[in-house]
Amino acid sequence: MRPIEVISKENLHLLLSNEIQQNPSFPRIQDSCCIMVPLPQETVDHILSYVRREDLPVCACISKAFQDATERTTFECVKVQSSDLDIFDQAFKHVRRRSILKKILFHVNLPSYGRENYARLEREGDRQKNNRAYSQAISRFHQILNGWGGTNVDKLISDEGGIELLQTPWSPDDLVPGRRMQSSLDGAEFNDDIWIERYKRSFLVVDNVQAIPEVAVVSTFALRAGPGKARNTHPATAAELARKMPNLREIKWAISDNEKWAKYMDARRERRTEFAQALVTIPFLHLTIFQLQFTHREPRNHGWTPHSVISAMGPNNEEHVSDPLSRALHTVTTNAPNLRKFVFKGPIVCSPEILWPARLTRGCGQERNGNGDQRTLPYWSHLEVFQVMFSAVSPDGSWAFEVGPNGPQDEESTPQPSLSDGDYESELGSFLSDDSVDRGDRVPTFVERVESGEKPSCDFRDAVKKEVFDAWLVSPRIAFCAILSFIISQVFLIALVTSERL
Protein backbone atom coordinates (compact mmCIF):
# COMPACT_ATOMS: atom_id res chain seq x y z
CA MET A 1 0.00 0.00 0.00
CA ARG A 2 1.53 3.29 -1.14
CA PRO A 3 1.16 5.90 1.60
CA ILE A 4 -0.13 9.38 0.75
CA GLU A 5 1.17 12.09 3.06
CA VAL A 6 -1.55 14.66 2.44
CA ILE A 7 -4.92 14.22 0.79
CA SER A 8 -7.18 17.21 0.27
CA LYS A 9 -10.96 17.21 0.18
CA GLU A 10 -10.82 17.78 -3.58
CA ASN A 11 -8.47 14.81 -4.04
CA LEU A 12 -10.75 12.68 -1.91
CA HIS A 13 -13.73 13.43 -4.16
CA LEU A 14 -11.54 12.70 -7.19
CA LEU A 15 -10.54 9.38 -5.65
CA LEU A 16 -14.20 8.51 -5.23
CA SER A 17 -14.95 9.51 -8.82
CA ASN A 18 -12.19 7.16 -10.03
CA GLU A 19 -13.75 4.38 -7.97
CA ILE A 20 -17.06 5.00 -9.69
CA GLN A 21 -15.53 4.94 -13.15
CA GLN A 22 -13.91 1.60 -12.44
CA ASN A 23 -17.16 0.13 -11.04
CA PRO A 24 -20.02 1.17 -13.35
CA SER A 25 -22.41 -1.24 -11.66
CA PHE A 26 -22.52 0.96 -8.52
CA PRO A 27 -25.71 3.03 -8.22
CA ARG A 28 -25.06 6.72 -8.77
CA ILE A 29 -26.32 9.65 -6.76
CA GLN A 30 -25.70 12.99 -8.40
CA ASP A 31 -26.22 16.49 -7.10
CA SER A 32 -24.91 19.91 -8.00
CA CYS A 33 -21.59 19.34 -6.21
CA CYS A 34 -20.36 15.81 -6.76
CA ILE A 35 -21.25 12.19 -7.51
CA MET A 36 -21.48 9.86 -4.50
CA VAL A 37 -22.16 6.14 -4.25
CA PRO A 38 -22.67 3.83 -1.27
CA LEU A 39 -19.20 2.29 -0.93
CA PRO A 40 -18.42 -0.82 1.10
CA GLN A 41 -17.32 0.11 4.62
CA GLU A 42 -13.94 -1.59 4.05
CA THR A 43 -13.33 0.75 1.10
CA VAL A 44 -14.25 3.79 3.17
CA ASP A 45 -11.92 2.72 5.97
CA HIS A 46 -9.12 2.17 3.45
CA ILE A 47 -9.60 5.64 1.95
CA LEU A 48 -9.54 7.32 5.36
CA SER A 49 -6.33 5.49 6.31
CA TYR A 50 -4.56 7.91 3.92
CA VAL A 51 -6.03 11.03 5.51
CA ARG A 52 -4.19 13.04 8.15
CA ARG A 53 -5.91 13.01 11.54
CA GLU A 54 -6.44 16.77 11.51
CA ASP A 55 -8.32 16.48 8.18
CA LEU A 56 -10.65 13.69 9.31
CA PRO A 57 -13.47 15.94 10.64
CA VAL A 58 -13.97 17.33 7.13
CA CYS A 59 -14.39 13.81 5.77
CA ALA A 60 -17.27 13.19 8.19
CA CYS A 61 -19.40 15.54 6.07
CA ILE A 62 -19.19 13.34 2.96
CA SER A 63 -21.67 10.64 3.92
CA LYS A 64 -23.01 8.58 6.80
CA ALA A 65 -20.48 5.83 6.08
CA PHE A 66 -17.63 8.36 6.17
CA GLN A 67 -19.01 9.91 9.36
CA ASP A 68 -19.10 6.52 11.10
CA ALA A 69 -15.56 5.65 9.98
CA THR A 70 -14.24 9.09 10.91
CA GLU A 71 -15.78 9.06 14.39
CA ARG A 72 -14.26 5.66 15.14
CA THR A 73 -10.88 7.41 14.94
CA THR A 74 -11.58 10.94 16.14
CA PHE A 75 -13.65 9.87 19.17
CA GLU A 76 -11.43 6.98 20.25
CA CYS A 77 -9.14 9.32 22.24
CA VAL A 78 -10.20 12.84 23.24
CA LYS A 79 -8.60 15.72 25.11
CA VAL A 80 -10.97 17.53 27.45
CA GLN A 81 -10.36 20.78 29.30
CA SER A 82 -12.40 21.22 32.47
CA SER A 83 -13.63 24.51 30.99
CA ASP A 84 -15.13 22.56 28.06
CA LEU A 85 -17.05 19.91 29.97
CA ASP A 86 -20.43 21.11 28.67
CA ILE A 87 -19.18 20.69 25.09
CA PHE A 88 -17.83 17.23 26.00
CA ASP A 89 -21.18 16.28 27.50
CA GLN A 90 -23.04 17.40 24.37
CA ALA A 91 -20.62 15.64 22.01
CA PHE A 92 -21.17 12.30 23.76
CA LYS A 93 -24.93 12.40 24.18
CA HIS A 94 -25.16 9.65 21.57
CA VAL A 95 -24.57 6.13 22.88
CA ARG A 96 -22.68 5.14 19.71
CA ARG A 97 -19.95 7.69 20.37
CA ARG A 98 -19.63 6.57 23.98
CA SER A 99 -19.04 3.01 22.81
CA ILE A 100 -16.19 4.25 20.59
CA LEU A 101 -14.42 6.20 23.33
CA LYS A 102 -11.33 4.42 24.75
CA LYS A 103 -9.19 7.15 26.31
CA ILE A 104 -9.81 10.57 27.90
CA LEU A 105 -7.02 13.07 28.56
CA PHE A 106 -8.68 15.23 31.20
CA HIS A 107 -6.91 18.53 31.87
CA VAL A 108 -8.17 20.29 34.99
CA ASN A 109 -7.69 24.04 34.66
CA LEU A 110 -6.65 25.70 37.91
CA PRO A 111 -6.93 29.48 38.44
CA SER A 112 -4.34 31.73 36.84
CA TYR A 113 -2.11 33.63 39.24
CA GLY A 114 -0.55 36.30 36.98
CA ARG A 115 2.93 37.46 36.17
CA GLU A 116 3.13 39.48 39.38
CA ASN A 117 3.10 36.23 41.41
CA TYR A 118 5.75 34.29 39.49
CA ALA A 119 8.20 34.92 42.35
CA ARG A 120 5.76 34.14 45.17
CA LEU A 121 5.08 30.84 46.88
CA GLU A 122 1.48 29.66 47.04
CA ARG A 123 -0.37 30.78 50.18
CA GLU A 124 -3.12 28.87 51.90
CA GLY A 125 -5.67 31.04 50.07
CA ASP A 126 -4.14 30.00 46.74
CA ARG A 127 -4.35 26.33 47.71
CA GLN A 128 -8.00 26.68 48.71
CA LYS A 129 -8.83 28.31 45.36
CA ASN A 130 -7.06 25.51 43.52
CA ASN A 131 -8.83 22.84 45.58
CA ARG A 132 -12.22 24.43 44.86
CA ALA A 133 -11.55 24.55 41.12
CA TYR A 134 -10.20 21.00 41.18
CA SER A 135 -13.15 19.70 43.19
CA GLN A 136 -15.72 21.36 40.94
CA ALA A 137 -14.07 19.99 37.79
CA ILE A 138 -13.83 16.45 39.17
CA SER A 139 -17.41 16.53 40.42
CA ARG A 140 -18.81 17.77 37.10
CA PHE A 141 -16.72 15.26 35.13
CA HIS A 142 -17.89 12.36 37.28
CA GLN A 143 -21.50 13.52 36.98
CA ILE A 144 -21.24 13.35 33.18
CA LEU A 145 -19.72 9.87 33.13
CA ASN A 146 -22.10 8.66 35.82
CA GLY A 147 -25.00 9.61 33.54
CA TRP A 148 -23.78 7.25 30.85
CA GLY A 149 -25.44 4.42 32.74
CA GLY A 150 -24.69 0.92 31.49
CA THR A 151 -22.64 1.96 28.46
CA ASN A 152 -19.51 -0.25 28.28
CA VAL A 153 -20.11 -1.57 31.79
CA ASP A 154 -20.95 -5.09 30.64
CA LYS A 155 -17.58 -5.32 28.87
CA LEU A 156 -15.46 -4.07 31.75
CA ILE A 157 -14.85 -7.49 33.29
CA SER A 158 -13.30 -8.71 30.03
CA ASP A 159 -9.99 -7.54 28.59
CA GLU A 160 -11.85 -5.23 26.22
CA GLY A 161 -13.99 -2.17 26.79
CA GLY A 162 -13.73 0.44 29.47
CA ILE A 163 -12.18 3.90 29.34
CA GLU A 164 -8.63 4.89 30.22
CA LEU A 165 -8.61 8.18 32.15
CA LEU A 166 -5.45 10.29 32.35
CA GLN A 167 -5.87 13.23 34.71
CA THR A 168 -3.52 16.24 34.53
CA PRO A 169 -4.27 19.36 36.62
CA TRP A 170 -2.45 22.62 35.98
CA SER A 171 -2.80 26.39 35.83
CA PRO A 172 -2.39 28.15 32.46
CA ASP A 173 0.43 30.18 34.01
CA ASP A 174 2.38 26.97 34.71
CA LEU A 175 2.76 26.40 30.98
CA VAL A 176 3.79 29.85 29.76
CA PRO A 177 6.55 29.29 27.16
CA GLY A 178 10.05 30.16 28.36
CA ARG A 179 9.40 29.88 32.10
CA ARG A 180 11.47 26.68 32.43
CA MET A 181 14.55 28.35 30.94
CA GLN A 182 14.04 31.59 32.83
CA SER A 183 13.60 29.94 36.22
CA SER A 184 16.62 27.66 35.80
CA LEU A 185 19.00 30.49 36.73
CA ASP A 186 20.41 29.70 40.16
CA GLY A 187 21.32 32.07 42.96
CA ALA A 188 19.85 34.73 45.19
CA GLU A 189 20.40 37.48 42.66
CA PHE A 190 17.62 36.16 40.40
CA ASN A 191 14.09 36.09 41.80
CA ASP A 192 11.88 37.14 38.95
CA ASP A 193 10.37 33.70 38.39
CA ILE A 194 10.52 30.64 40.66
CA TRP A 195 8.26 28.49 38.41
CA ILE A 196 7.70 25.04 40.02
CA GLU A 197 9.14 26.27 43.33
CA ARG A 198 5.91 28.23 43.72
CA TYR A 199 3.70 25.13 43.95
CA LYS A 200 5.95 22.09 44.42
CA ARG A 201 4.84 21.66 48.06
CA SER A 202 1.13 22.02 47.25
CA PHE A 203 -1.01 18.89 46.80
CA LEU A 204 -4.50 19.07 45.31
CA VAL A 205 -7.36 17.73 47.40
CA VAL A 206 -11.00 17.08 46.46
CA ASP A 207 -13.38 18.71 48.94
CA ASN A 208 -16.22 16.48 50.13
CA VAL A 209 -15.06 13.51 48.08
CA GLN A 210 -17.91 11.42 49.52
CA ALA A 211 -20.33 13.41 47.33
CA ILE A 212 -18.47 12.61 44.09
CA PRO A 213 -20.58 10.24 41.93
CA GLU A 214 -19.30 6.79 41.03
CA VAL A 215 -18.03 6.16 37.51
CA ALA A 216 -18.48 2.59 36.29
CA VAL A 217 -17.11 3.07 32.75
CA VAL A 218 -13.50 3.87 33.75
CA SER A 219 -11.23 0.83 33.68
CA THR A 220 -7.82 2.59 33.85
CA PHE A 221 -7.01 5.54 36.11
CA ALA A 222 -3.74 7.36 35.46
CA LEU A 223 -2.19 10.40 37.15
CA ARG A 224 0.72 12.39 35.78
CA ALA A 225 3.04 14.58 37.84
CA GLY A 226 6.32 16.39 37.45
CA PRO A 227 7.78 19.74 36.34
CA GLY A 228 5.97 20.97 33.25
CA LYS A 229 3.62 17.95 33.25
CA ALA A 230 1.03 18.42 35.98
CA ARG A 231 0.46 19.64 39.53
CA ASN A 232 0.78 17.27 42.47
CA THR A 233 -2.34 15.36 43.49
CA HIS A 234 -2.56 14.36 47.14
CA PRO A 235 -1.99 10.58 47.21
CA ALA A 236 -4.97 10.04 49.52
CA THR A 237 -7.16 11.92 47.05
CA ALA A 238 -5.97 9.62 44.27
CA ALA A 239 -7.02 6.61 46.34
CA GLU A 240 -10.37 8.16 47.26
CA LEU A 241 -11.12 8.86 43.58
CA ALA A 242 -10.17 5.26 42.73
CA ARG A 243 -12.82 4.15 45.21
CA LYS A 244 -15.35 5.95 42.98
CA MET A 245 -14.34 3.72 40.04
CA PRO A 246 -15.58 0.25 41.04
CA ASN A 247 -14.55 -1.43 37.78
CA LEU A 248 -10.90 -0.36 37.75
CA ARG A 249 -8.58 -2.87 36.10
CA GLU A 250 -5.43 -0.73 35.94
CA ILE A 251 -3.93 2.00 38.12
CA LYS A 252 -1.00 4.07 36.84
CA TRP A 253 -0.11 6.84 39.26
CA ALA A 254 2.86 9.21 39.35
CA ILE A 255 3.01 11.04 42.71
CA SER A 256 5.82 12.97 44.37
CA ASP A 257 7.27 11.85 47.72
CA ASN A 258 10.51 13.76 47.36
CA GLU A 259 10.43 16.06 50.40
CA LYS A 260 13.65 15.83 52.45
CA TRP A 261 13.83 19.17 54.28
CA ALA A 262 13.19 18.73 58.02
CA LYS A 263 10.82 21.71 58.26
CA TYR A 264 8.38 20.03 55.83
CA MET A 265 8.72 16.41 56.98
CA ASP A 266 5.59 16.45 59.16
CA ALA A 267 3.49 17.23 56.09
CA ARG A 268 5.16 14.40 54.18
CA ARG A 269 4.53 11.91 57.00
CA GLU A 270 0.89 12.98 57.13
CA ARG A 271 0.46 12.48 53.37
CA ARG A 272 1.95 8.99 53.51
CA THR A 273 -0.20 8.00 56.51
CA GLU A 274 -3.41 9.31 54.90
CA PHE A 275 -2.50 7.54 51.66
CA ALA A 276 -2.08 4.28 53.57
CA GLN A 277 -5.41 4.69 55.36
CA ALA A 278 -7.24 5.33 52.07
CA LEU A 279 -5.64 2.40 50.23
CA VAL A 280 -6.57 -0.32 52.72
CA THR A 281 -10.30 0.40 52.45
CA ILE A 282 -10.55 -0.18 48.67
CA PRO A 283 -11.49 -3.74 47.58
CA PHE A 284 -9.95 -3.56 44.05
CA LEU A 285 -12.06 -6.54 42.95
CA HIS A 286 -11.18 -6.23 39.26
CA LEU A 287 -7.66 -4.75 39.52
CA THR A 288 -5.04 -6.55 37.41
CA ILE A 289 -2.25 -3.96 37.16
CA PHE A 290 -1.07 -1.55 39.86
CA GLN A 291 1.77 0.78 38.84
CA LEU A 292 2.80 3.40 41.37
CA GLN A 293 5.68 5.80 40.80
CA PHE A 294 6.15 7.33 44.24
CA THR A 295 9.32 9.24 43.51
CA HIS A 296 11.94 9.97 46.14
CA ARG A 297 15.32 10.98 44.73
CA GLU A 298 18.19 9.82 46.89
CA PRO A 299 20.28 12.47 48.74
CA ARG A 300 23.57 13.12 46.96
CA ASN A 301 25.35 13.81 50.22
CA HIS A 302 25.94 10.34 51.69
CA GLY A 303 27.19 11.88 54.89
CA TRP A 304 23.83 13.53 55.52
CA THR A 305 21.37 12.06 58.03
CA PRO A 306 17.92 11.42 56.44
CA HIS A 307 14.68 11.89 58.36
CA SER A 308 12.20 9.18 59.28
CA VAL A 309 8.91 9.11 57.38
CA ILE A 310 7.17 7.03 60.06
CA SER A 311 4.74 9.03 62.17
CA ALA A 312 5.29 8.53 65.89
CA MET A 313 1.59 7.95 66.53
CA GLY A 314 -1.26 6.70 64.39
CA PRO A 315 -4.74 8.23 63.97
CA ASN A 316 -6.01 6.28 67.01
CA ASN A 317 -2.97 7.18 69.13
CA GLU A 318 -1.38 3.79 68.53
CA GLU A 319 2.40 3.74 68.31
CA HIS A 320 3.86 3.19 64.87
CA VAL A 321 6.90 0.88 64.83
CA SER A 322 6.88 0.24 61.07
CA ASP A 323 5.90 2.01 57.89
CA PRO A 324 2.09 2.18 57.47
CA LEU A 325 2.37 2.79 53.72
CA SER A 326 4.44 -0.35 53.12
CA ARG A 327 1.88 -2.40 55.05
CA ALA A 328 -0.97 -0.77 53.12
CA LEU A 329 0.61 -1.59 49.77
CA HIS A 330 0.94 -5.19 50.90
CA THR A 331 -2.77 -5.13 51.77
CA VAL A 332 -3.54 -3.89 48.24
CA THR A 333 -1.87 -6.98 46.78
CA THR A 334 -3.96 -9.27 48.97
CA ASN A 335 -7.21 -7.31 48.50
CA ALA A 336 -6.95 -7.56 44.70
CA PRO A 337 -7.76 -11.21 43.88
CA ASN A 338 -7.07 -10.74 40.14
CA LEU A 339 -3.81 -8.79 40.47
CA ARG A 340 -1.25 -9.88 37.86
CA LYS A 341 1.30 -7.07 37.89
CA PHE A 342 2.49 -4.94 40.81
CA VAL A 343 5.12 -2.29 39.95
CA PHE A 344 6.30 0.14 42.63
CA LYS A 345 9.13 2.42 41.60
CA GLY A 346 10.53 5.89 41.95
CA PRO A 347 12.88 4.89 43.64
CA ILE A 348 10.60 4.80 46.66
CA VAL A 349 11.03 4.76 50.43
CA CYS A 350 9.52 1.49 51.63
CA SER A 351 10.18 -1.57 53.78
CA PRO A 352 10.03 -5.34 53.07
CA GLU A 353 6.52 -5.38 54.57
CA ILE A 354 5.34 -4.74 51.01
CA LEU A 355 6.15 -8.41 50.41
CA TRP A 356 4.90 -10.05 53.59
CA PRO A 357 3.56 -9.19 57.07
CA ALA A 358 6.08 -8.34 59.77
CA ARG A 359 7.15 -10.68 62.58
CA LEU A 360 5.37 -13.89 61.56
CA THR A 361 6.32 -16.42 64.21
CA ARG A 362 4.97 -19.92 63.71
CA GLY A 363 2.69 -22.30 61.84
CA CYS A 364 1.45 -21.84 58.30
CA GLY A 365 -1.61 -20.23 56.76
CA GLN A 366 -2.90 -18.43 59.82
CA GLU A 367 0.10 -16.97 61.68
CA ARG A 368 0.64 -14.76 64.66
CA ASN A 369 2.69 -11.59 64.68
CA GLY A 370 4.77 -10.24 67.54
CA ASN A 371 1.66 -8.86 69.24
CA GLY A 372 -0.11 -12.23 69.20
CA ASP A 373 -2.63 -11.09 66.56
CA GLN A 374 -3.63 -13.59 63.94
CA ARG A 375 -2.32 -12.79 60.44
CA THR A 376 -2.87 -14.49 57.11
CA LEU A 377 0.15 -15.27 54.96
CA PRO A 378 0.15 -13.67 51.49
CA TYR A 379 -1.88 -15.49 48.87
CA TRP A 380 -1.48 -14.29 45.28
CA SER A 381 -3.37 -16.58 42.95
CA HIS A 382 -2.75 -14.66 39.71
CA LEU A 383 0.37 -12.57 40.40
CA GLU A 384 2.98 -12.75 37.63
CA VAL A 385 5.25 -9.73 38.24
CA PHE A 386 6.19 -8.10 41.53
CA GLN A 387 8.66 -5.26 40.91
CA VAL A 388 9.95 -2.86 43.56
CA MET A 389 12.63 -0.21 43.09
CA PHE A 390 13.46 0.96 46.60
CA SER A 391 15.46 3.97 47.69
CA ALA A 392 18.84 4.04 49.36
CA VAL A 393 17.00 5.51 52.37
CA SER A 394 14.77 3.34 54.58
CA PRO A 395 11.46 4.55 56.10
CA ASP A 396 13.05 4.89 59.56
CA GLY A 397 15.61 7.33 58.14
CA SER A 398 18.56 4.92 58.10
CA TRP A 399 20.72 4.34 55.05
CA ALA A 400 20.15 1.03 53.25
CA PHE A 401 23.67 1.30 51.79
CA GLU A 402 27.15 1.36 53.27
CA VAL A 403 30.75 1.58 52.11
CA GLY A 404 31.50 -1.44 49.94
CA PRO A 405 34.49 -3.82 50.22
CA ASN A 406 36.49 -1.76 47.75
CA GLY A 407 35.77 1.52 49.52
CA PRO A 408 37.46 3.23 52.48
CA GLN A 409 37.42 0.99 55.56
CA ASP A 410 37.99 3.54 58.30
CA GLU A 411 36.46 6.85 59.25
CA GLU A 412 39.54 8.87 58.42
CA SER A 413 39.60 7.67 54.83
CA THR A 414 35.83 8.06 54.32
CA PRO A 415 35.11 11.05 52.04
CA GLN A 416 33.98 14.04 54.05
CA PRO A 417 31.48 16.48 52.56
CA SER A 418 32.63 20.02 52.06
CA LEU A 419 30.76 23.14 51.07
CA SER A 420 32.80 23.83 47.96
CA ASP A 421 30.17 26.28 46.75
CA GLY A 422 30.83 28.57 49.69
CA ASP A 423 30.15 28.63 53.37
CA TYR A 424 26.49 27.84 54.09
CA GLU A 425 25.98 30.40 56.85
CA SER A 426 27.77 33.05 54.85
CA GLU A 427 25.64 32.34 51.81
CA LEU A 428 22.39 32.48 53.78
CA GLY A 429 23.44 35.57 55.74
CA SER A 430 24.45 37.40 52.60
CA PHE A 431 21.12 36.62 51.01
CA LEU A 432 19.07 37.79 53.99
CA SER A 433 21.00 41.03 54.34
CA ASP A 434 20.76 41.99 50.67
CA ASP A 435 18.01 44.62 50.44
CA SER A 436 18.83 45.49 46.83
CA VAL A 437 17.03 42.42 45.50
CA ASP A 438 13.29 41.85 45.45
CA ARG A 439 13.54 38.31 46.76
CA GLY A 440 9.86 37.46 46.75
CA ASP A 441 9.56 34.21 48.71
CA ARG A 442 12.56 32.52 47.25
CA VAL A 443 15.09 30.80 49.48
CA PRO A 444 18.39 30.37 47.61
CA THR A 445 18.53 27.00 45.90
CA PHE A 446 21.89 26.40 47.57
CA VAL A 447 20.35 26.63 51.05
CA GLU A 448 17.53 24.23 50.27
CA ARG A 449 19.91 21.72 48.71
CA VAL A 450 22.08 21.70 51.81
CA GLU A 451 19.05 21.25 54.08
CA SER A 452 17.77 18.43 51.86
CA GLY A 453 21.04 16.50 51.61
CA GLU A 454 21.65 17.42 47.98
CA LYS A 455 24.75 19.53 48.60
CA PRO A 456 27.61 19.08 48.91
CA SER A 457 27.76 16.02 46.68
CA CYS A 458 29.60 13.17 48.38
CA ASP A 459 29.03 9.62 47.10
CA PHE A 460 30.60 6.73 48.98
CA ARG A 461 27.77 4.31 49.78
CA ASP A 462 27.92 1.65 47.08
CA ALA A 463 26.87 -1.63 48.75
CA VAL A 464 23.59 -2.78 50.27
CA LYS A 465 23.79 -3.48 53.99
CA LYS A 466 23.62 -7.17 54.87
CA GLU A 467 20.67 -6.72 57.22
CA VAL A 468 18.74 -4.88 54.49
CA PHE A 469 19.55 -7.59 51.97
CA ASP A 470 18.41 -10.28 54.39
CA ALA A 471 15.21 -8.43 55.26
CA TRP A 472 14.21 -8.26 51.60
CA LEU A 473 15.24 -11.70 50.49
CA VAL A 474 15.73 -14.16 53.36
CA SER A 475 12.65 -15.80 54.86
CA PRO A 476 11.84 -19.52 55.19
CA ARG A 477 8.15 -18.81 54.57
CA ILE A 478 8.51 -16.88 51.29
CA ALA A 479 8.94 -18.73 47.99
CA PHE A 480 9.93 -16.55 45.08
CA CYS A 481 12.63 -16.01 42.50
CA ALA A 482 14.42 -12.67 42.67
CA ILE A 483 16.78 -10.86 40.38
CA LEU A 484 18.81 -8.08 41.96
CA SER A 485 20.69 -5.30 40.23
CA PHE A 486 22.67 -3.02 42.54
CA ILE A 487 23.41 0.37 41.04
CA ILE A 488 25.44 2.37 43.60
CA SER A 489 22.58 4.20 45.26
CA GLN A 490 19.43 2.33 44.36
CA VAL A 491 18.22 -1.24 44.03
CA PHE A 492 15.88 -2.72 41.50
CA LEU A 493 14.10 -5.72 42.96
CA ILE A 494 12.11 -7.82 40.58
CA ALA A 495 10.43 -10.78 42.16
CA LEU A 496 8.50 -13.24 40.09
CA VAL A 497 6.21 -14.72 42.72
CA THR A 498 4.81 -18.22 42.42
CA SER A 499 1.07 -18.62 42.16
CA GLU A 500 0.80 -21.04 45.08
CA ARG A 501 -0.08 -20.30 48.69
CA LEU A 502 3.00 -18.67 50.31
UniProtKB/TrEMBL annotation:
<feature type="domain" description="F-box">
    <location>
        <begin position="39"/>
        <end position="70"/>
    </location>
</feature>
<protein>
    <recommendedName>
        <fullName>F-box domain-containing protein</fullName>
    </recommendedName>
</protein>
<keyword id="KW-0472">Membrane</keyword>
<dbReference type="InterPro" id="IPR036047">
    <property type="entry name" value="F-box-like_dom_sf"/>
</dbReference>
<feature type="transmembrane region" description="Helical">
    <location>
        <begin position="477"/>
        <end position="497"/>
    </location>
</feature>
<keyword id="KW-1133">Transmembrane helix</keyword>
<dbReference type="InterPro" id="IPR001810">
    <property type="entry name" value="F-box_dom"/>
</dbReference>
<feature type="region of interest" description="Disordered">
    <location>
        <begin position="401"/>
        <end position="423"/>
    </location>
</feature>
<keyword id="KW-0812">Transmembrane</keyword>
<dbReference type="Pfam" id="PF00646">
    <property type="entry name" value="F-box"/>
</dbReference>
